[in-house]
Design a protein that fits this description.
- The structure is a single chain.
- This protein has four helices and no strands.
- Helix 1 runs parallel beside helix 3, helix 2 packs antiparallel against helix 3 and helix 3 packs antiparallel against helix 4.
- The protein is mostly helical.
- It has one domain.
């Protein structure tokens, strides 16, 4: 698509990142609707970005509030999730 969709995509990515800080349900439903009339790749990337943001925020909560026995496995699992996701979103 042209340059206009790139600007719209960047805006959607920013919104997805912010929305993912609290929940992914709303952005997932919004992007499902957007995929019908807009760019499905942008919608999919936005959902992945929101999910990764949500996972990272929840990991941060565990790191701050959880004990050492919980912190270590959650940090390892989150690191593995983020490492696996690096190739999932080609270029935002």
């Amino acid at each position: 698509m042209g340059g206009g969709s790139n600007i719209a995509g960047k805006g959607l990515y920013m919104v997805a990142g912010l929305a993912g800080m609290t929940d992914v349900d709303a952005i997932t439903l919004s992007m499902a609707e957007y995929a019908r009339s807009g760019d499905a790749h942008v919608a999919a990337n936005a959902v992945v970005l929101a999910t990764l943001t949500n996972t990272t925020v929840k990991c941060g909560i565990v790191a701050v509030l959880g004990g050492a026995a919980l912190r270590r496995p959650v940090l390892i699992a989150t690191g593995a999730i983020l490492a696996a996701a690096v190739g999932t979103i080609p270029r935002l």
